[in-house]
Structures are given as C-alpha cells and as structure tokens.
C-alpha cells in the first residue's frame, strides 16, 4: 500500500487526525529542511562537512528526530545558502 493511500485512510479517523494536526509545525520544519538541502544540491555528507558535524546529525535533522536549536538551524541555513526566517502567526480562535 502506498503511503498516500494509507494516510488518506488514517485521516478519516478523528483521533488520528487530531494527533496528526498537532504535529503540523514539526512536519513543516522537516519538509523545509529537506527542501533546502535538495535546492542546495548537497548530499547529507557534504552538508555535514559544511556544518562541521556528522552525516548522522543531518539525517536526524531531516527525519525530525529531536528538536534542533535555532543555532543549529542558522548553521544549516548558512551551509545551504539560505536565510533562516522564524515567524509567529496568530492561531484562529486564540486570544
């Protein structure tokens, strides 16, 4: 079964959907990190060398295992030729 098919089925379950939506920001960060590295044309090993870290650290960053510090994200951005931008957006229904 394809991931997209499985995800579609699971999203019909309200409890699963709630938990999935709660992780939206983490998924967005993982996607942004992966896209930035791909745009830079670097392998994980090449990026790790530029960041003065290990390939496994870059892999953890891309997989979402652990929460990177802003310092790590700044190093990542610089190594991939990007600028780190963090913003706060209002949540609907919140004060």
Give a verbal description of the structure.
The protein is mainly α. The chain has a single domain (7-80), classed as Orthogonal Bundle (434 Repressor (Amino-terminal Domain)). It contains six helices and no strands. The longest helix has 17 residues, at 24-40. The relative contact order is 0.11. The mean pLDDT is 92.
Features:
single chain, 95 residues, 434 Repressor (Amino-terminal Domain)
Distance between the termini: 42 Å
From the alpha-carbon coordinates, what is the Rg to the nearest angstrom?
Answer: 16 Å
- The helicity comes to 55-70%
Report the top-level CATH class: Mainly Alpha
**Helical stretch tally:** 6
**Series of H and E elements:** HHHHHH
The rough form would be described as: globular
Oligomeric form? single chain
Average pLDDT, all residues: 92
Strand content: under 5%
CATH topology: 434 Repressor (Amino-terminal Domain)
CATH superfamily: lambda repressor-like DNA-binding domains
Contiguous runs where pLDDT drops below 50 for at least 5 residues? none
Computed structural class: mainly alpha
**Biggest sheet character:** none
Strands, total number: 0
What is the name of the CATH architecture? Orthogonal Bundle
Number of domains: 1
Can I get a quick summary?
The chain has 95 residues and is mostly helical.
Ordered list of secondary-structure elements with their pairings:
Layout: H1 3-10, H2 14-22, H3 24-40, H4 44-51, H5 55-63, H6 70-80
